Amino acid sequence: MKGNHKRIVKNTIMLYVRILCAMFLSFYISRIVLQLLGVGNFGILSAVFGVTNLMMFVNVSLSGATSRFLTFELGKGTAGNLSKVFRSALFTHVVAAGIFVLLAETIGFWLVNHKLVLGPGKLTAANMLFQLGIGACVLSIIKIPYEAIVLAYERMNIFAYISILQYVLQLALFSLLFLFPKRNLLVDYGIMFLLVNAIVLLAYIFYDWKHFTETRGGPVYYKDITISIFGFCIKTLYSDGSHVFKMQGINILENMFFGPALSAATAVANQAYLGISSFADNFLVACRPQIVKNYATGDYQELQFLVINCAKLALGLLLLVLIPCIIETDFILKIWLKNPPEYATTFCRLLLIASYFSVLFRTLMFAVQATGNIGKMSFWFGSLYLLVVGIAYLYLKIGAGPTTPFWVNIVSPLGLCGIVMWLVSKQIPSLSMISYVREVVGKCALMACCGILPALWVYSCGPEGWRRLIGVMLVSTIGVSLSGFCGAMSRAQRRWLVSYIKRLIMQFNTKGVYGND
User: Fold this and answer.
1) Is there a domain that residue 315 lies in?
2) Total structural domains in the chain?
3) Could you report the per-residue pLDDT of 97-111, keeping only the tens digit for each?
């Protein structure tokens, strides 16, 4: 196995340690926050933060641009230019923070005060929460370059440690809210959220200043680099902004048409979606720097290998948790929240199905981003995202049910997959899309079927409970694993995996023998 592949495996392990801890902590945090605030206040919190996140669309584009330029410079080996790229990126994020505040205090303020359904006597608290959320988002924007250089250097252990620290801080500080007089809990929550973001930013700055000399300085306007970063950002602004608009737009639509209770259900579904999809996203975070670096060095054979095999592995890992969570959603939500909001089960299932299709094209998207020629991808992606919100709004306007936006949302990843495959075939002709369809789409569909069918049979055979949940998890895991080993992996990959397991067993036995002596 190549050194780069071993690095991906090592980084993936660290990221999965992170996500297991983060999932447990974030789900528990959601439970205590829902218990503390109640469904109504939890829905207001989701809707107000949905507005602040909607105004963050500029930051999403800059985050992708910063990550791409830092990783590309490392791939080329031009470390001397890295300091200029970082300080230019920091400058662009300071500008983005200013743009965000301007948008939030105008458009966002109008949405909170005139469009959201908040309930009687909640407007003042919602506005104070909104201002605290703006402050937290500004800190999050400034954090991006410091986080991006950690990822560019592939220090996934540090990324994992700081992420876990963030969740531990949230759990500790939010738990303190139970001790406060329960008079203005929404504002107290906003203060704690702002404090957590400040501590996380300081942690990244402290680590980066200590280990990366190129980060020891403030924002600087280097004309050529800054224009390049802003140019890349402008190309992705339409798609990234539209994606944020789609995600937060669905939340806001549910609030506008059905009130805070449906906002709470949407927030629960989004939390579950982010938690489950992160199983694939964490692996893809480890793959992305290598995809960009291989394109930068012109190693297209290795690029093809990574794009296909990283996609297969990401989808396989996602299926291991996705299948039991979709089938046993209702029982899992009862364990998690005790009394989940109405429609939370249906919303979760529909979002989780969409998460599978969105991973189908992720590594291809990384390859297109590596080229820097992303204008067409941004246009088509953004148009589809906006179309989802537009169609959902029209259906709700004529009286459709609250699940309609989530059904419309499932269709968009399928269209995006076709678009990005067409773009890759044009921009990187050496990557075979026929191989991608055969190896990724076809073989991962086989894995999904082999996991779903036996799991549905177990689901139909017994009453709801832990025994059925464990049974569903076992048979789906066996089905996905066996079909992945026999059908998705190549002969060489199977031989390597078997030999690797044998080496681990021999090392374990050797240590056992010496330990007995």
Assistant:
1) yes
2) 2
3) 888 888 888 888 888
